[in-house]
Automatic annotation (TrEMBL), chain B:
2Fe-2S ferredoxin-type domain sequence ranges: 21-109
Organism the protein comes from: Vreelandella alkaliphila
Pfam families documented for this protein: Fer2_3 (PF13085), Fer4_8 (PF13183)
GO biological process, one term: respiratory electron transport chain
Cofactor: record remark: Binds 1 [4Fe-4S] cluster.
UniProt name for this protein: Fumarate reductase iron-sulfur subunit
Cofactor: [4Fe-4S] cluster; [3Fe-4S] cluster; [2Fe-2S] cluster
Key words, A-Z: 2Fe-2S, 3Fe-4S, 4Fe-4S, Iron, Iron-sulfur, Metal-binding, Oxidoreductase, Tricarboxylic acid cycle
Length: 132, 260
């Protein structure tokens, strides 16, 4: 038993999961955004706006692009696009493990990679708009 | 509370009826295949599942194997699956079940015989997290002439008390889908006991335990299904402990990063 423990202390089984706290933090933050901010965004942009319940010109092209291509706009995209993407990626990765599809190391790269790529794209668009 | 339950549910020994219990039998000496066997017996409102198993063993079929000891939900030996849900036999009453009752050995553990499972892997995980007080730097060296006891305030006790009620019955391991997928996962009870000692003001072993908790097979394999907390017969709430453990593991990683 002691021998076995001694091997474990230095063996691959004792490898620390330094990446997991990062994915879990992004997942948690994304969960909060999903629950708190996204319903409000859907209410305003997807329900009130098409029904004409917002004041005229509240989200006109001029006003909307000014709001989006700014530092608050950058934070807004981070909260409603990027963090929820990582939340979804984390769930998909664990869901795939649960139904025994693929292997976890590859799934991790695919899921978090896709979330990172789409996040960079979304934030890049905002930055490009700010620099125009 | 117990008197209330008795009066409202009017439990008595008069309500006798005949019930059928199906037990999943596995006798490796005679057959490599498990099979179902049905038993019929008289029960009343006070008959626990453990009473029923004892009745089978003593009156109907002495070949049945199962574990039990205290019959009062403190030894944690009599865990079985009742209609697919992990339960303690002594804390489960047949009056709560209509129709057929199906008894199986605890899920996710290798079956040795009938309802007896091999819990070795659980005990290994338990040992790995060092579930005992570790005090590397006692405040004072031990003096046999004037021995000093550890002092703890009620507030310090309250921090970990709930997590200290674990009786190592293993029901949470049978409930955990992640342990079912990967038996290397330390699992609910071991992670909860690690958290219990990490929260104890007398303990200084957190650093040693965090290297176990912060593995992929440590807290990070948990997906917060929460069924462990539902089946726990002692209301320990392992799901809460494991997820508080994730916060601790994240802090541990941050500190390790800054210290290099």
């Amino acid at each position: 038993m002691m021998e076995k423990l001694a091997i474990n202390e230095h063996g691959p089984q004792h490898k620390q999961a330094f990446d997991e706290p990062l994915w879990w933090s992004l997942f948690s933050a994304g969960g909060v955004c999903f629950a708190v901010i996204l319903p409000a965004v859907i209410l305003f942009i997807a329900i009130c706006l098409p029904l004409g319940l917002l004041p005229a010109g509240a989200l006109s092209y001029e006003r909307a692009s000014n709001l989006l291509f700014s530092v608050p706009g950058f934070l807004f995209v981070g909260a409603v696009v990027c963090l929820p993407l990582f939340h979804a990626a984390h769930r998909l990765r664990h869901g795939l493990f649960d139904i025994s599809v693929g292997n976890d190391i590859l799934n991790k790269k695919l899921m978090y990679g896709a979330a990172a790529l789409l996040s960079v794209l979304a934030l890049g668009l905002v930055v490009a708009g700010m620099l125009r | 509370m117990s008197t209330e339950q008795i009066t409202t549910k009017s439990v008595s020994t008069n309500n006798t009826s005949i019930k059928h219990i199906s037990v999943k039998r596995y006798l490796p000496d005679s057959s490599a295949e498990a099979y179902w066997q049905q038993y019929e017996m008289p029960v009343d409102d006070s008959t626990s599942l453990l009473d029923a198993l004892n009745h089978i063993k003593e009156q109907l079929d002495s070949t049945l194997s199962y574990r039990w000891s205290c019959r009062m939900a403190i030894c944690g030996s009599c865990g079985v699956m009742v209609n697919g849900i992990p339960k303690l036999g002594c804390k489960t009453f047949l009056r709560d079940y209509e129709g057929e009752i199906r008894i199986e050995p605890l899920s996710h553990f290798p079956v040795q015989r009938d309802l007896v499972v091999d819990m070795e892997i659980f005990l290994e995980h338990l040992a790995a997290v060092k579930p005992y007080l570790i005090d590397d730097n006692p405040v004072k060296p031990y003096d046999p002439k004037a021995p000093e006891t550890y002092q703890q305030t009620p507030e310090q006790l309250a921090r970990y008390k709930q997590f200290a009620n674990c009786i190592n019955c293993g029901l949470c391991y049978s409930a955990c889908p992640q342990f079912g997928l990967n038996p290397e996962f330390l699992g609910p009870a071991a992670l909860t006991l690690a958290h219990r000692y990490n929260l104890d003001s007398r303990d200084h072993g957190k650093k040693q335990r965090m290297t176990e908790l912060n593995r992929h097979e440590g807290v990070w394999s948990c997906t917060f299904v929460g069924f462990c907390s539902q089946v726990c017969p002692k209301h320990v709430d392992p799901a809460a402990a494991v997820n508080q453990g994730k916060v601790e593991a994240a802090k541990h990683t941050l500190i390790a990063l800054f210290k290099g």
